[in-house]
Design brief:
- This protein is 74% helix and 1% strand.
- It has 559 residues and is an all-alpha fold.
- The longest helix is centred in the C-terminal third of the chain and has 37 residues.
- The radius of gyration is 22 Å and the shape is globular.
- Keywords: Cell membrane, Membrane, Transmembrane, Transmembrane helix.
């Protein structure tokens, strides 16, 4: 099997999904209407609510939701075989992720830019809001704490990526100021990309490393602290100043990265050496169903996308119809990244023969970011003739920048959640942005260093919960959207069917993990997993009650 066949089938499927299925959902189900004033115009405050060009907003949304997850998940899940991984990425993107992301944008924009947690109160009920926000906060805590570790480890392992990663922030600040002064977007985009890749090239010769020990902490721990200081500052700045231009630049560099990877496939046409279905899995390997779905997670459908869509993106939506471009096409972008990741870790670029591939993928979890960077760098080198070291720096920088933009948005979203709690419980101190940000960063650092000691890797302790918790959150988001559609008298099957499927897979995975954590005597994970499972059941029961009452009142009125 040649990798080009997988690429062509996958990309054609996603293109069909974009042109036909997304248009149907946007016009017939969500009925996006530009006559509706978006929160960005209605509540424009120049800081969080800012009308934004849809291409720039797409860049923010895409890079915020992507992070490193659509690389990590598929690079691990291919262990079960490339066929099930490809099928779930492609069909999950078309039928699940695109609808989920566009729906979250639409639902939030119709409710003054409320986050999905706050929105659940309006749609389902007050009790649901509190339950929903517990799951959201847990997901944000996991993402922020772990991505801080991922970036810090990348800086230590790939010091060549440090210079371009921080250069991207400086470039974003300049572009943000120029955009505010109505400079043309396209020339700035071109110049920004040139400067970014020049810094990547320079980074190959300017490795930046911290001392192995400083202030009594290891270099990784010091990087984690530096990253959270930066994230705290970034989360308080107006979105136009750093968040939008940084995410837009990262979105453009991702497009360049994808062009390099996909172009390499067309030029080199490498063979696939991984098995279509892996029959040589280790005895301890869990069942492909339901673990495949929660492992790939963000590569197909992700609850974190709903948090970003309703937390920051909906507040910047210029026109309601832009929800299709930003939401659905953002999901397609992420699906395309997941697809090329599968190709990079399944072919001769990573392993020259099936035997070598099995050596790399000796057990579930053996392949991850390193497999993507190594396989992707060799793929680019063989297709474009670029040096392997330079190609490796490009991909390492891409991973770091993705994880960094997710941290930027994640800390800001945590701040929103804490401020919403301040509104709910009339705690004036929590309504303050600076206080809420300090609490957000403080909880992440407390987890990082409280549970992980001086290494700062404590977030990794609860990371195993991310897959099932994230998917359960996606199903809850789809549930809120479905209830909205039912109340509006519109067909809800296009969101209810994906909701039911994702919920069953995620819940089943959560139960399997609960047993695993209990047998390992990891009682923290047992407790948190049980909380997420119980909360999801309660939210579902509450929603069912609301739908039943609505149907009864509708029947009575009709009668």
């Amino acid at each position: 099997m040649q990798s080009i066949t997988i690429v062509l089938l996958g990309i054609v499927g996603m293109i069909i999904g974009w042109f036909f299925y997304s248009k149907f959902i946007a016009t017939k189900i969500f009925r996006l209407d530009d006559n509706n004033v978006t929160p960005a115009h209605e509540l424009n405050d120049g800081k969080d609510f800012v009308p934004t060009n849809k291409v720039v907003l797409w860049g923010h949304h895409f890079t915020s939701v992507a992070g490193a997850a659509p690389i990590v998940g598929p690079a691990i899940a291919v262990y079960w075989g490339w066929v099930p991984a490809v099928l779930w990425v492609v069909f999950g993107t078309i039928l699940f992720a695109g609808v989920h992301d566009m729906g979250a944008l639409w639902a939030s924009a119709r409710h003054k830019g409320k986050s999905m947690g706050a929105l659940s109160e309006s749609v389902i009920g007050k009790r649901t809001r509190s339950l929903f926000m517990i799951v959201i906060f847990l997901v944000l805590l996991m993402v922020n704490a772990v991505f801080g570790v991922v970036i810090a480890n990348s800086f230590v392992d790939q010091p060549n990526a440090v210079f371009p990663a921080w250069t991207a922030i400086a470039v974003a600040l300049v572009i943000g100021q120029l955009l505010k002064r109505n400079f043309s977007l396209i020339p700035m985009c071109i110049v920004g990309i040139i400067v970014l890749y020049a810094s990547v090239y320079a980074g190959s010769y300017i490795p930046i490393e911290l001392p192995e020990t400083m202030f009594g902490l290891a270099d990784t721990a010091n990087w984690i602290i530096i990253l959270f200081i930066y994230a705290a500052i970034a989360s308080l700045l107006p979105v136009w100043m750093l968040l939008q231009p940084r995410d837009f630049i990262n979105g453009m560099q991702l497009i360049v990265g994808l062009l390099l990877l996909y172009g390499a496939v067309f030029f080199a046409m490498p063979d696939i050496t991984a098995p279509a279905f892996n029959s040589q899995t280790a005895e301890s390997t869990p069942s492909i169903i339901p673990l495949l779905f929660v492992t790939i997670a963000c590569g197909a459908v992700s609850g974190f996308h709903g948090i970003v869509a309703s937390g920051t993106s909906s507040k910047q939506l210029n026109k309601e119809s832009d929800a299709r471009f930003v939401g659905y096409l953002g999901a397609v972008g992420e699906g395309s990244l997941a697809l090329i990741t599968i190709v990079a870790v399944s072919g001769v670029a990573l392993a020259a023969s099936p035997e070598e591939w099995h050596e790399v993928y000796s057990h579930l979890g053996a392949g991850s970011v390193s497999a993507f960077i190594n396989g992707g760098a060799n793929l680019i080198a063989s297709g474009w003739g670029l040096p392997v070291d330079f190609s490796s720096t490009i991909l390492a920088t891409m991973v770091v920048l993705f994880a960094g933009t997710t941290m930027d948005s994640g800390v800001r979203l945590q701040r929103y959640i804490i401020q919403e709690w301040g509104e709910i419980y009339s705690l004036s101190a929590l309504k303050n942005g600076a206080v809420a940000t300090l609490l957000a960063v403080g909880t992440c650092l407390l987890l990082a260093f409280g549970a992980g000691g001086s290494s700062g890797s404590g977030g990794m302790i609860i990371w195993p919960l991310f897959g099932s918790t994230n998917q359960i959150l996606a199903s809850l988001t789809l549930l809120v959207i479905s209830v909205m559609l039912i109340k509006l008298g519109r067909p809800a099957k296009y969101t209810l069917i994906p909701m039911f499927f994702v919920l069953v897979m995620a819940f089943f995975a959560g139960v399997i993990k609960l047993k695993e954590y209990y047998l390992a005597e990891n009682y923290l994970l047992v407790f948190l997993d049980a909380v997420v499972l119980i909360v999801s059941i309660l939210v579902m029961l509450e929603a069912w009650s609301v739908i039943s009452r609505f149907k009864k009142s509708e029947a009575t009125t009709t009668g």
